[in-house]
Amino acid sequence: MYRLRKIKELKGYRFFQDFKWDESNCSLFNQNNIVYGWNGSGKTTLCDFFKELEDGQLSSTETSFSLLFEDTASGAHATITQNRVGTIPYFFKVFHQNYIQENIATADPVKHIFAVGKGQKEKIDAVKDLKSKEKEQSAKLKALENELLMKRQDFEQLKTDKAKIIKDAAQYTNAYNKNKFFSAIKALTARQLLSDDDYQKALASIRAEQRPTVSPIKTKFIQSTVKEYVSAILKETPVNKTIEALKSDAQVGNWVEHGLSIHTDKHSNICLFCGNPISENRLEELRAHFNKSYKELSDKIEGAIKLLHDKSQEFETAKTSLPDKGLFYLELQSQYAPLQADAQRVCDEYISVIAEIIEILKKKKSDMINSEYADAFLNRVSSLTFDYAVFEKIQDIIKAHNKKTEDFKESIRRAKEQVEQHHLSEFADEIAEAEKGIEEKEKEHREQKAHCDDLKLHISQLEQEIRNSQIPADAINKDISFIMGRSELIFKNSEMGYLITRNGKRAKNLSRGEENAIALIYFFNTLLDVDADAKRTIIVLDDPISSFDSNFYYNAISYIKEKTEEAGQTFIFTHKFSLLKDYSLMYKRDTNRYTIQRIHNVPQIINEDALIGQYHDEYAYLFKKVYFFVKNPPSDTSEYLQYPNMARRLLEAFLTFKLPLPNDKCTMIDKVLEMEKSGNTAAGRAVLRLLNNQSHLRAISGSEIVDDIDSITVLPDTLQHLLNFMKTHDKKHYDTLAKLCDPHYQEDGGAVEINRPTFRKVRLYEMSASAGPGSFLDDNIPFEEIDVRNPECTYAVRISGDSMEPDICDGAIVLIKQCEEIPHAHIGIVWYNGNCYCKKIVQSNGKLLLVSSNKQYRPIEITSYNEYHVFGEVLEVNTLN
Questions:
Q1: Where does 56-114 have alpha helices with state H?
Q2: Cα 764 to chain center, whole Å?
Q3: What pLDDT sits at residue 710?
Q4: Upstream peptide bond of 338 is cis (omega within 30 degrees of 0)
Q5: Structure confidence at residue 160 (pLDDT)
Q6: Is 19 exposed, middle or buried (0-12, 13-18, 19+ CB in 10 A)?
Q7: How far is CA 694 from CA 51, 264, 642, 676, 803, in A?
Q8: Could you tell me which of 405, 386, 401 has the C-alpha nearest to residue 335?
Q9: Which residues of 58-90 are buried (b: 16+ CB within 10 A; e: fewer)?
Q10: Predicted local confidence at residue 6, as pLDDT
Q11: What H or E segment, with its residue span, contains residue 605?
């Protein structure tokens, strides 16, 4: 079984920067150890160190330590360092104020239900926090569900709207709905957008009604060969004996030629017109005029005329057979209309020209021997192009129309498909974007739901852990009854903690002492776990019952004594002298008592002062502390802070001893004035100032620094006056105390022989607002020398300005300790952003501030450390001028 024997060294842990065990003034730790120390002496810091050993993890990598453990059976030693935290042969169990805060929790807002337990407060707080978060996240989830629902509804409406556009455009039936649309768009592999013209054509095709077929134009139009044919006829002349009268009168000639033909066919020599006989000579003359050559040419002319009549008739037929535009489908009508007009114009032109050519042929027939008609013919026929492409185009349109009529259902189906594919291609991006928005919202919803589910699961697990880790209510009730001496408070296990009743009714609130007692009961009831036993446990208690009510104070001490009897080792830390005495009475066997204090800003653990152990109050000890403070003041003024309270308590005890009058009848100031009837002495004034003022610095909110009337630097002189006051008003009493404290005390001398440092010379510089980082301690900078007593003073500076008034006035001389860092709320000389300052250095919310005592000046925040340089810390304000 091992026991912690000493802390050989502890470095880099808060202000335990270089702690070493004092072999000559400190006995090795015993089984029970009681450590007494004032606030600020390091008790809590040391307990926090033990707590980190309990947790097995140091808060700072800068911390190093060496702990000596001893096997009580064999005497073997084991030294544990920071590199072997996990090998400590003991289990540390620490009870301090943090433990109370960590293990006492209010489970409901009206404080009817309390929870206690290892980590219960954190778990309760975590459950509350998680439930608050779960409520917030559930609201967010609900909002996401609504957003997702709206997006899905909008998407369904979008599909419906798009499906309707396609249904209306393609004239689909009502069977074409959003589902068919969405299936079609998901099956779309390539975009098929139509041009505006093609889209309109497709729409026209869809909206068209089936029309009858249109008959094609069946006409053989006149060809260009007619020019040679007619031209040759017009150029030909007959070989005959011309009868001039018939030649000159074509009408008569034609009539006679026709009559001769009738008479020849009938073999009649009698004129069928007048009935008179026709002489043979006359017939021969006529036959000679109308001979074979004439006949042949005449027949040719007649044939040509007939041909041209037929062709003219064909053009008439073609013209009249051109179909009406309205017979065609709408998409063909626009193409056909200009072609129809061109075809009609062509027909009219050919009919007109053919009629003129026929007239020329007729003239030829009347004047066959004349060949000049050919020129007129050629002039007229040259206007004809013999180009009938317009009719071919019309035929193509007729064919397309008739083909559509034949394939009407298929063409409408193709047009509908084209329109559908066009709109699907047009809507694809919008649909994809909407789908993406839903997918993102669904993903966000899934993640949020998973987050909410995790929160609910975590809450459920924590609640189960809280229920599982509760110790039985009967065990708490038993110990509560023992400590309080009554069964006023009754605990009952509930789902999230303990339902507490007071005198049968729900306890609305617990006092701080009751909460402390509950935490202490839990601490001892759960002291052991599966890996620990009492003999291998070091119990560390930091002021465990300082807040207990006086009516169950002693029972609590007895309870602690009983619970620690089986522990391997016990450490009890306290700042109350009365508790120290009570613990000392309770713990006698195997018990050592120690004092923890700060000397020169370094914590020390030493054996209990004889004046503490020999007396039942701390009066003699307080006198000793004040006496040696005055005799040999610390060089570091930060160590002065604890002495004003000590001095006041010493003074109050002395005044009570000298004038034991009730406080409501006579205040401490009244007592001083009563004792100082002899006059206005320096000692009396100093004592009054001590009672009136706090006499030390303190930091308050807002990073402002408030100073008391008396500067802390004059405290040794003030307390010297206090000792003189005591010696003046009760010399025998004072001499007895002084001899107890100081073997070298001389009754015939002053109240205390002061060991003040001798004077030495340091440089005095003038403070310049423009001083640079290298200004002070530079041989090239003018200076003078002054005498100072403070051994830590490096140099002095004469202050310029009123920013530190009333603490440091314009022209005052301050003693400086050269350093690289100034403690929080201490005054220093610094250079920042091109200016030199005398300010208080304040750390606030992660910011570094330069604070003036004069409230007319606002704090200066350090934002650029490249422009910041520390000259040194102000030790004191010198009274020299």
A1: 97-103
A2: 55
A3: 45
A4: no
A5: 95
A6: buried
A7: 34, 172, 11, 22, 23
A8: 401
A9: beeeebebbbbbbeeeeeeeeebebeebeebeb
A10: 94
A11: strand 602-607
| DSSP per residue, 695-728 | -S-EE-GGG-EE--SS-GGGHHHHHHHHHHHHHH
User: How many whole angstroms from its chain centre is CA 766?
Assistant: 53
Q: What are the structural domains of the chain?
A: 1-90+568-607 (no CATH), 120-221+398-468 (no CATH), 226-397 (no CATH), 619-741 (no CATH), 760-878 (2.10.109.10)
- Written as six digits, the tokens of 4 are 């912690």
Question: Are 469 and 120 within 8 A, CB to CB?
Answer: yes
Comparing CA positions, the residue from 174, 239, 160, 169 lying closest to residue 199 is 169
Answer whether 424's CB lies under 8 Å from 155's CB: no
**Type of residue found at 8:** K
Closest CA to 608 of 620, 594, 624: 594
Predicted local distance difference test score (pLDDT) of residue 468? 63
Residues 704 and 859: their CA atoms lie apart, in Å, by: 9
The residue count of the chain comes to 881
- How many CB atoms are closer than 10 A to CB 461? 12
User: Does residue 651 contact residue 658 with C-beta atoms inside 8 Å?
Assistant: no
Alpha helices in 603-667 (DSSP H): 610-613, 619-631, 643-658
3-state SS class at 823 = coil
Compute the distance between CA of residue 786 and CA of residue 170 in angstroms, rounded to an integer.
108
Long-range CB contacts (within 8 A, 24+) of 58-64: 58/82, 58/85, 60/12, 60/13, 62/12, 63/10, 63/11, 63/12, 63/13, 64/9, 64/10, 64/11, 64/12
Query: Which of 718, 714, 736, 740 lies closest to 727 in space, CA to CA?
Result: 736
Determine phi and psi for 323, rounding to 5 degrees: -70, 155
Low-confidence residues of the chain: pLDDT under 70: 105-121, 238-250, 253, 257, 280-281, 283-293, 467-470, 495-497, 528-532, 547, 549-551, 678, 693-711, 756-757, 768-780, 879-881
DSSP string, 480-521: HHHHHSS--EEEEEETTEEEEEETTEE-----HHHHHHHHHH
pLDDT at 183: 94
**Measured between alpha carbons, how far is 540 from 96 in angstroms, rounded to an integer?**
8
Residue pair 733/688 in contact by the 8 Å Cβ criterion: no
Global pTM value? 0.50
Distance CA 306, CA 310 (A): 6
∠ Cα 54 56 62 (to 5°): 115
Rounded distance between C-alpha atoms, residue 156 and residue 95, angstroms: 65
Interacting residues of 811 by C-beta distance below 8 A, sequence separation 6+: 798, 799, 800, 881
Instruction: Tell me how far apart the alpha carbons of residues 849 and 423 are, in angstroms, rounded to a whole number.
Output: 69
Note the pLDDT of residue 147: 93
Q: Nearest CA to 762 among 732, 742, 734, 789?
A: 789
Pair 793, 777: CB distance under 8 Å: no
Helix, strand, coil tally for the chain in percent (to 5): 50, 15, 30
pLDDT at 217: 86
Distance CA 866, CA 622 (A): 47
**Dist. CA 542–CA 34, nearest whole Å:** 10
61 Cβ contact list (under 8 Å, min separation 6): none
Strand bridging mode 569-574 / 489-494 = unpaired
Dump pLDDT digits (tens) for 484-502: 777 778 888 776 667 788 8
Torsion angle of alpha carbons 797, 798, 804, 810, nearest 10°? 180
Phi, psi of 356 (to 5 degrees): -65, -40
Cα–Cα distances in Å, from 481 out to 150, 523, 720? Answer: 62, 16, 51
pLDDT in the model for residue 245? 58
